[in-house]
Amino acid sequence: MIVIKDLLVFSQETLLFFIESLLLKEKNVFLLGGKTNYERSIFLQVLANLYQKFAGHVIIDEIIIERYSSRDFCKKIQYADQHGVLFSNMTIWGQFTYILSEYQIDFDIITNIINYHFEKVGLLETLPYYPSELSSSQKIIISVMQKIIIEPKYLLLDNPTEFLNRDEKMMLLYYLLDFKKKGNTLIINSDDEQLKSYFYEKEIILL
Amino acid sequence: MIADTFSLFLQYRRMLFEGIGNTFYLFFSIIYLSLCIGFVLFFMKHFLFKDSFILFLLNGLTYFTRSLPPYVYIVFITFYFFPANDFYNMMAIGVYALSILHGCTLSYDIKIAFFEIPLNQWILGKILGIQRAKFYFKIIIPQVIFRLVPRFFLCCKEILKNISLLSICGIPEFTNKICCLVSLSKRSYFLFLFTVLFYGFFSFVIDFFLQLVERKILFKIQNNDKR
Q: Which positions ≥6 away from B129 have C-beta within 8 Å?
């Protein structure tokens, strides 16, 4: 157990409620509300325990969160934002095979997994290309797929549909629905009304 | 006149080609040594001795070598710092001196190429749980090489020019064995013309390859940094 002391200005009640509600898997999609967009995104990053530079802000309360080893942690929680970040020196195919080989999956199974996921989203053609040769919307969708392909339990999304067209938005939402149906939880921060109407189940308001 | 120059070329062709061979040998040996020294210096400055007194000494060494003109630096090293009586020893010390000089400039270029990599690449590797050593070799170092190549080709041009300064050490570059004849012959302009053409052609070759590489690499870098 590790105690995280330095946190941003969120009340203890909201965080405890959030952590308790994660254990209830009846409703798997949580939408963040309240506060500004910036603070909501920081909340997600602190949850994902990735951006350690935010430690050192205002100390409020001690929150106890279970700490896992780095690989197990990555299997539990993944974070994806609206920028569509990919490894710039590898093709899309190369990146996905490299990531899946890190998790000790056989090569034959890797090819099947990649083809299955890309067919769902309709981006099979983008596999042999480098990230610099793709459009920004394709990169955003592929970066979300990069995190989903590891099969985490909790997926934190920060404005995923901000820069997408209507058709691409629907593609991504269908893909996220499939992810949700497998019993995983989604924690989303967005101002998109279409996404809210599609996914709305439970809202968490930050005070 | 053309016939005279051609006859002179035929007369001294063996010595001229020997000189070209020496130049290529020195060029590639200095490039290899300077690359090694550059990477070692970068590693020592930014990882090993990050917050120590040795960093102060290393920074002083690089500042000293980069601030002096190469002529003065080579004379200082070969005649005062490591004096040698033999021609070949002088030449070798001159090669090491030049490789240290260009290694210091390359360490700075490597630093720029390393820290130009956007922060999101490091964060993505951490998010996905990739092992650190594999992450460096598969993702970071190829991107460093991509960004280093244009600067490296410019360094090669400087090395080519500075090789001529090694003639100070005692062995003339490719006026090898005919240095005394140059002063006596009436057609001495021919040899200087040959040197000018040789350097011009070789630097053109480097520029040609540099442009080919820049078109492919910088296009990728510019598109990756845009959002």
A: A70, A71, A73, A74, A75, A102, A103, A150
Give the pLDDT band of residue B23 (cuts 50, 70, 90): confident
- List pLDDT tens digits, range B101-123: 999 999 989 998 998 888 888 88
- How far off is chain A from B108, nearest CA to CA, in Å? 23
Encode B72-125 in three state secondary structure: HHHHHHHHHHCCCCCHHHHHHHHHHHHHHHHHHHHHHHHHHHHHCCCHHHHHHH
- B217/B110: higher pLDDT: B110
* Selected residue with higher pLDDT from B156 and A205: B156
Place of tokens 């893909």: A175
Residues A98-115 have pLDDT tens digits of: 999 988 888 889 999 999
Quick one: closest CA in B to A139, which residue?
Answer: B227
Nearest-Cα distance to chain A for B42, in Å, is: 22
Residues of chain A under the 50 pLDDT cut: 1-9, 51-67
Task: Residue A137: list chain B partners with CB under 8 A.
Answer: none
Provide, as residue numbers in chain A, all residues whose Cβ is less than 8 Å from the Cβ of B220.
88, 130, 132
Q: Which of B83, B79, B99 is nearest to B163 (CA)?
A: B99
Nearest residue in B to A148, CA atom: B128
Q: Give the closest-approach CA distance of A71 to chain B in angstroms.
A: 5
Q: Which of B67, B77, B66 is nearest to B109 (CA)?
A: B66
Q: Considering just the CA atoms, what is the radius of gyration of chain B in Å?
A: 22
Subunit contact A99:B128, Cβ cutoff 8 A: yes
pLDDT for B125 beyond 60: yes
Cβ contacts (< 8 Å) between B227 and chain A: which residues?
A: 83, 136
